[in-house]
Amino acid sequence: MNHEVYHARAAVMKALANPARLMIVDQLKGGERCICELQPLFRKDKSTLSRHVAALRKAGIVSERREGVRVYLKLVTPCILNIFDCVSRVLEAEARRAVRVTRKGKPR
Amino acid sequence: MNHEVYHARAAVMKALANPARLMIVDQLKGGERCICELQPLFRKDKSTLSRHVAALRKAGIVSERREGVRVYLKLVTPCILNIFDCVSRVLEAEARRAVRVTRKGKPR
DNA sequence: TTATTAGTTGCAATATTGTGCAACTATGCA
DNA sequence: TGCATAGTTGCACAATATTGCAACTAATAA
Hints:
The structure is a homodimer of 108-residue chains. By secondary structure, chain A is α+β, with helices and mostly antiparallel strands.
């Protein structure tokens, strides 16, 4: 496995490595959503949301369709949603480890 | 789905969003590896490798076992490896889109 | 004890990301 | 035309991440 492959994969992972962008992806699990529908769920400036959407588009994770004044997003590759099953497993394993460490005393 | 969940997931994704760390994860697909075995595959300083390993450990992605002077790493949750199937699909979709755009002329 | 190998940590420099504000473009409607 | 809604972009600044060097710790062997 060469360096460019790791780099290309890292670019996709980077696009997913942000809470705001994970929220967007999560909102798209049921199908298309307009950016304007995401706005109210998002505490930050619309320009910030726009840039997060641009990052997902650039990584090839979402595609856009314009309808009048609105832009609708959808997941290009819905398998993205399966990734979170494994991520949850990592978080659960971490939580169990935290409990074990707390019960046994010294973290080590 | 609340904000903390996205934040926790993003922390795991962030740990995977780096070419060097993806290389480490990839090397662990066959089982345990010593950090010293990864060193020669890695062009950068050993302190840099050490910090990448620490990031994976902190995210709960790898665990360590010391054997004498060496530290052996393994994947806590091997489902991580499945994530790359989907990431590859994203990259393939992107590649196909690039070809289409090139053939049709204007990218829209 | 001293030396060696393996790995970690403090520090400083640089690079990359995330953000808001203001000004912009694009579309549709009165 | 003028106005409203939806979204994007330039700019500056703040926050994080990545890196190497040098100095450190940990385990083991001479």
